[in-house]
Amino acid sequence: MSSSNPLRDAQDRRLPRIAGPSGLVIFGVTGDLSRKKLMPAVYDLANRGLLPPGFSLVGFARRDWASEDFAQVVHDAVKEHARTEFREEVWQQLIQGMRFVQGDFDDDKAFETLKATIQELDKAQGTGGNFAFYLSVPPKFFPQVVQQLKKHGLAEQKENSWRRAVIEKPFGHDLDSAQELNRIVHEVFPPNEVFRIDHYLGKETVQNILALRFANQMFEPIWNRSYVDHVQITMAEDIGIGGRAGYYDGIGAARDVIQNHLLQLLALTAMEEPASFDADALVAEKSKVLGAVKIPKDLGRDTVRGQYAAGWQGGAKAVGYLQEDGIDPKSKTDTYAAVKLEIDNRRWAGVPFYLRTGKRLGRRVTEIAVVFQRAPHSPFDHTATEELGQNAIVIRVQPDEGVTVRFGSKVPGTSMEIRDVSMDFAYGESFTESSPEAYERLILDVLLGDANLFPRLEEVEQSWRILDPIEQYWDTHGKPAQYASGTWGPVEADEMLARDGRSWRRP
Amino acid sequence: MRIDLTDTTSSKINKALVQGRRAIGTPAVGMVLTLVIVTDEENAYDALKAANEASREHPSRTLVVVKRFSRSPRDRSKARLDAEVRLGADAGTGETVVLRLYGEVINHAQSVVLPLLLPDAPTVVWWPVNGPVDPAKDPLGALGQRRVTDTYAAEQPIHELTARSENYTPGDTDLSWARITPWRSMLAAALDQLPTKVTSVEVEGEEFNPSCELLAMWLADRLSVPVKRTLSAGPGLTAVRMETADGPIVLDRADGSLATLCMNGQPDRAVALKRRETSELLAEELRRLDPDDTYASALKFGVDRLGAVVEKAEAEASKTGEDAAASETKPAPAKKAAPAKKAAAK
Fold first, then answer.
1. Are B272 and A54 within 8 A, CB to CB?
2. Where would I find the Glucose-6-phosphate dehydrogenase assembly protein OpcA N-terminal domain in this sequence (chain B) (predicted)?
């Protein structure tokens, strides 16, 4: 904030970054995300002393609640889901700024009430006109909500105060719809005041990718086509679609996960060193590498999609996707997607990036595996290295955040036998309750106006440019392969890598 | 699991650590630092408990050095080292070794500790009570790049602050300083919100609480204005009043948990400012292992100068009468701290 503040000093590393006076308005506050993630994150931030005094939380939803009912709901959500222990005095600080506004998104009166509430909070809580609007609603309501905000003057950027919009994925379902959405949002909010949440980017391990690559000397020299054989980026879920049939059918795994999370992980893994660690420099490098991504020539050969069939997942019986409630038995929606991408630049030419994601796979895991080439020459005879695989650096994003290095080591004994071993770094903070949740970090960054960890417009559009041709091909060719629940995806995916003489890691 | 070793040596302890890790099946260790706790038997339990909790955030090898003083001259001349090795669930997320030193080895504790430090990883030495006057020159303190004392636990905290400032070596730090981080952060946030010129400050808190002096010295050092230290019944720090060109900014915490922030032209706001547990303070200390220059600067401002400025400020106040409003709510005992023996350290 003000650099002239005599109590602030760059040397003073104990003082945390506290957001300035501000408030958060959540649309769709009765939803799951809001109760399980947003409200607990707000409480946890307050508990860690990172929210400004007078921070205000306004809920907006159709439900007929009084502010007290809302406070009760937040209270229950916090007690159940917050990471840090419940403390009465923190709650007392928060509750003073809690308001609820009841209404539909087309209800002008409700937005007038919202406006009055915000003005009242400025007076009573000193929020200074700074508000972030969190649109935790299905994307079809985005246009309506932002238009209402505009119509009632809630989105006006006044001098010395800010109004920000926070939106969640999906950012459209293809390039056209994404551009349309961006147009709608940017018509009302300037680009630098729009924050797109990709909660993966708020995770400590994802931020650690940059630290690992650019703060160290030992990884970067081998982080290129001379040493890397290929890269596998996996995000596997063990659950099915649950109650999200309405959202999921017609979207599918590729749009839901690859377009945002996996391509962001790819960008962070493959990008060049940014000039500095600020939002503009980061987006420049990420856009560059996403712009260099080349999709396979033969889409039938180098992409695979699948649907989970009935089976057993982790000891529980699971129904197939087509048998889930609310799913059209003829649905072609993919619950598993794997694609092979290449990056056309000097660093990565010829190194395939295999991206895969799926539901009802073996276990829940997200990881980036950089697999290295075999040693060009081995002084050991064939039998000694028979069981030696390729060296790999695996960044485990979740769960059990950390980094694993795989390399060959001699098996103790009189004969020379070399086998793979793992060296493991468990992310120091990961086995603690006090490791901040991604949403905490992201909400704080929104309030501080720090855009480092948010994908920008350009990145979203570039991701769709990569995915659109693949989706179009899938729409017109064949149908998803079936794979038994609880396995690591369809055989077609294994065959896809086998054709390249490689195989998927078992994460 | 626990392994008890009597009349042992560091190398036997190292062996026991390796054995223990094998036995519980976790040969890989991801510990980030060695924490050496130097304490007496009385305080060992609480200190270790706090360290184990802090180890959730900072997985560490914790070495507790307990010096057992023997009564008879014959026992004093004999040296013996007992150790208790704890791993797994008994030791938070790292490993713990409780070292009990008898006889002559008491004066050579560093020889026991040195072989047990984790390779390469930083070492932090913490004295929960009775910190040495010059931590960096202490044989055990010399092993650590970070030396944590707790002036609050001293018998004469204010004298001790002066001594700390005279002997300050980069890497020294104090839990009394960590205690006031939330206050400092809130005061800085207040000035973020109302960028204005502060003309004078008053820090109010209980007697014999060095955190109040440290906060006052930090404010005086940063703001270069007179800072007055006044007394209240506590608990801990109770209020900070900053007189500014735009009216007073007051952060008032009467009950030790919920504070009120009052600023001119803005509504009064509640702020949670709970007094924190030792484990939280320790976790904060371990987050940064580089020298804390801000602490050094505040500490070196000097408690005496604080007094001098107060007198000067009072003289000015009585001359102009301008500050009368600020101090009229106070009992304002303009006493220089003449610390009597503290009844209870904690």
1. no
2. 51-165
First-to-last CA distance in chain A?
44
Cα–Cα distances in Å, from A500 out to A301, A497, A504, B81, B234? 11, 5, 11, 62, 72
For A366-376, write each residue's pLDDT tens digit: 999 999 999 88
Say if residue A404 is in the same domain as residue A288: yes
In a domain, A94, yes or no: yes
CATH number, domain containing residue A107 = 3.40.50.720
Same domain membership, residue A162 and residue A30:
yes
| Residue A320, CA atoms < 13 Å, CB-side half-sphere | 18
Q: What percent of chain B has pLDDT over 70?
A: 86
Check A81, A261, A377, A477 and give the catalytic one: A261
Q: Which domain holds residue A340?
A: 201-499
Tokens linked to B314: 């009072």
The pLDDT of residue A427 is: 65
Q: Which of A18, A54, A93 is opposite residue B272, by nearest beta carbon? A: A93
Within-domain flag for A374: yes
> Does residue A261 have an active-site annotation?
yes
Which residue does chain A place closest to B270, by CA atoms? Answer: A93
pLDDT digits (tens, 9 = 90+) for A359-408: 999 888 999 999 999 988 888 888 888 778 899 999 988 777 788 999 99
DSSP code at position B283: H
Q: Which of A108, A143, A168 is the last residue of a domain?
A: A168
Nearest to A2 among B58, B195, B273 (CB): B195
Through-space distance between the first and last CA atoms of chain B, rounded to whole angstroms: 31
Q: Note whether B54 contacts A: Cβ–Cβ < 8 A.
A: no
CA dihedral in degrees (B338, B340, B344, B346; nearest 10)? 20
Residues with pLDDT less than 70, chain A: 1-3, 427-435
Q: Please tell me the total count of domains within chain A.
A: 2
A296 and A433: one domain? yes
Selecting from A18, A90, A429 the residue whose C-beta is nearest the C-beta of B189 gives A18
